[in-house]
Amino acid sequence: MIQIMNTQTLIEKLQNGELDDRLLDIYVDNKLMDYQRNRYIVAIKKFEDLYDAGEVVLFSAPGRSEVGGNHTDHQHGKVLAASINLDSLGVVRATDDNTIRLVSDNYDEIVISLDDILLKEEEKETTTALIKGVVSGFLNRKFQVGGFKAYVTSDVLIGAGLSSSAAFETLIGTILSGLYNNMSVSAIDIAIIGQYAENIYFGKPCGLMDQMACSVGNLVYIDFENTSKPVVEKVEFDMEEYGYSLCITDTKGSHADLTDEYAAVPKEMKQVAKHFGKEVLRGITAQDIIREIQALRSEFGDRSVLRALHFVSENDRVTCEVEALKTGDFVGFLNLVKASGDSSYKYLQNVYSNSDVNNQNISVALAISDVVLQNNGVSRVHGGGFAGTIQAFVKNEYVDEYKKNMNLVFGEGACSDLRIRKYGGIQVV
């Protein structure tokens, strides 16, 4: 049953610590408690300024981090991803006027009539398109929708490979599930609807990993062999038991002019697959590639072959990572994370652009991580690569030292100390 609470009551409960246990349960890290209390209070007051005091509901949807399966999804492969304790937070009030009104951080109010949710070309790549897309997805699946007023704030880093857009889509889906479907819409349905919103309405071709990780929560394993019905499994895992943190470093590299680099990865993998009479690499073995390696090198060049070999090993590695987590073999898991990073560097070759070899921010970040961490953690390229972020699993007691070194190179605040959160899209209280 959805819980509704007065804004003033919520502020009082936050101020006197009554909601601390719930906040710690969601955000995991004790060091964040003051920050989250204040963040929630500010968000509620912003809502009051916009839409007056009164009854509201609080919703949250996390960002995500890819853990295993670097560039495997587009070949119908396997991925392992995690929800993180950065999130999109919504202060929401249901209305009966069939209109969605939403203000996100410092942006202008968005007003959407639920009588007009048709796809419009001029709205592509806008927040309006994402909201309309989620509403449309709900209606397509025969779920209920309705109006609401919302103030949304997010600390999911934009452009850092943590899926800020998927977190927002999940938040809107969770709001509609909570207000009008008694929280009965499944996390998987919300993820599929989020992907639909991003693909069709927003106009960005993306896989399902981002939305699924944001919606399901904790660690989630996804097998895309059947893309219309991917296998999704939540992997229950408490990293706190092992004394490690998840650190993401923004290396501040530019994503400009990298479209061709990103596009070349699936293109080259599919070239190799076509040699075997297939659309994608799924089902092709390393032995198959080695047997045909002379012909493949001659026809497509060496990089295509190396990228195909990466896919095969990375796909198998995801299965091993999941098994290691299930059996409590955390050392084995860390070794697999390191192997994933090594394969991306050597075979996939997505750590820097070949057209700009003088700028290798990710390579530098990985090198510094190796030097600084030694036996205190492992690192790997994170997400699409070529620029952007790296990921590191770091012993809790060594996090401050690691952050200090990474921030020294890439600027204050470049390295974020995160935790894996066990919840996807939720009602907070």
Fold topology:
Layout: E1 5-6, H1 7-15, H2 20-27, H3 33-51, E2 55-68, E3 78-95, E4 99-104, E5 110-113, H4 127-140, E6 147-154, H5 164-180, H6 187-202, H7 209-216, E7 219-223, E8 231-235, E9 244-250, H8 259-275, H9 286-291, H10 293-300, H11 302-326, H12 330-348, H13 361-373, E10 377-381, E11 389-395, H14 399-410, E12 415-418, E13 426-427
Parallel strand pairs: 4-6
Antiparallel strand pairs: 1-2, 2-3, 2-13, 3-6, 3-7, 4-5, 7-8, 9-11, 9-12, 10-11
Helix pairs in contact: 1-3, 4-5, 4-6, 5-6, 5-7, 6-7, 8-11, 10-11, 11-12, 13-14
What does this structure look like?
The protein is of the alpha+beta class. It folds into two domains: 5-238 and 422-427, Ribosomal Protein S5, domain 2; 242-418, GHMP kinase, C-terminal domain (Alpha-Beta Plaits, 2-Layer Sandwich), CATH 3.30.70.890. Helix content is 45%, strand content 20%. The chain contains 14 helices and 13 strands. The strands form two sheets. Strands 1, 2, 3, 4, 5, 6, 7, 8 and 13 form a nine-stranded mixed β-sheet that branches. A hairpin with a 5-residue loop joins strand 4 (99-104) and strand 5. Helix 8 crosses helix 11 (302-326). The chain is globular, with a radius of gyration of 22 Å. The relative contact order is 0.16. The mean pLDDT is 93.
CATH topology-level name of the largest domain: Ribosomal Protein S5, domain 2
Count all strands and give the number.
Answer: 13
Q: How much is the radius of gyration in Å?
A: 22 Å
- Poorly predicted runs are none
- Taken as a percent bin, the fraction of beta residues is 15-25%
Helix content estimate? 40-55%
Shape type: globular
Terminal-residue CA separation: 11 Å
Counting DSSP H or I runs of 4 or more residues, the number of helices is: 14
CATH class of the largest domain, named Alpha Beta
Task: State the secondary-structure class.
Answer: alpha+beta
The tally of structural domains comes to 2
The mean pLDDT is 93
The biggest beta sheet is recorded as: 9 strands, mixed
* SSE sequence, one letter per element: EHHHEEEEHEHHHEEEHHHHHHEEHEE
User: What is the name of the CATH architecture of the largest domain?
Assistant: 2-Layer Sandwich
